[in-house]
Amino acid sequence: MSATTIEAPRSPARQAPKRGVNWEKWGWIYMRASGVVLVVLIFGHLFFNLVLGEGISGINFGFVGGKLADPFWQWWDVAMLWLALIHGGNGMRTLINDYATLPMTRGVLKSAVLAAVVVLIVLGTLVVFTFDPCPPGSPADLLPSFCAAQ
């Protein structure tokens, strides 16, 4: 009787872990965490604006101007803006990876999403932190009624 040997398999049963950062894992974790934080920020935004205030009829230019003059609300809105845009951009990146078959198409689409997210984050952040409902030197007939006469 001869001994029977089993040949070694062609590939290991378990692949060796990759080196470096697992961006897909961190993207997945970010989507879950930012989703939870966004729910709190969005419903808090709606609650403070609509329930505690005068409702929808109380939201006008003066209300927004007053709200954006408060650093707490500036940071609240910027956090909401950043989280929502990065969350949406990451979701679009996932869709592009799933459905774009050509590497060049994937690269162009992901670059376009990244550019849009960066531009919107920069512009939105600038608006929140530089908003002035009563800019100095503006004609009085163009200023809202709550601005002091200059």
Automatic annotation (TrEMBL):
The keyword rRNA-binding does not apply. One of its GO terms (molecular function) is metal ion binding. The chain crosses the membrane at residues 29-52, 72-90, 111-131. CDD domains: SQR_TypeA_SdhD_like. GO terms for cellular component: membrane. InterPro entries: SQR/QFR_C/D, SuccDH_FuR_B_TM-su. It comes from the Bacteria. Keywords: Heme, Iron, Membrane, Metal-binding, Transmembrane, Transmembrane helix. It is found in: Membrane. The keyword Ribosomal protein does not apply. This is Succinate dehydrogenase / fumarate reductase membrane anchor subunit. It comes from Microterricola gilva. The lineage of its organism: Bacteria, Bacillati, Actinomycetota, Actinomycetes, Micrococcales.
